[in-house]
Amino acid sequence: MPVVRPPIGADPGRRRLLTALAGAPLLAAGGLAGCSDGATTSSQDGPVELSVFWWGGPRRAELTEKALRLYSARNPQVTFRVTWQGVDGYYERLATQAAGGNVPDLIQIDDSVLTEYTQRQIILDLTDRVADHRVDLRGLPEGLIRYGTVDGRTMAVAAGQTLAGVVFNRDLLRELRMPEPRAAMSWTEYISWATQVTEAGDGRVAGTMDGSGDYRALWLWLRSQGGEFYRGRQLGFGADELISWFELWQRARADRATPGAALIEQADGGEPARQLVVTGLTAASFAWSHQLPEMQRLTGSELGVVGFPGPSGAQWARASMYWAAFRGTRHPDTVADVINFLTTNGEAGTLLGHERGLNPSLAVRRYAEGSITDPVQRRAAAFGASIADQLGPAPAPPPKGHARVRTLLVTAAERIRVKRDGTREATARFLSQAIAALAG
Question: Which residue positions does the secretion signal occupy (predicted)?
Answer without folding.
Answer: none
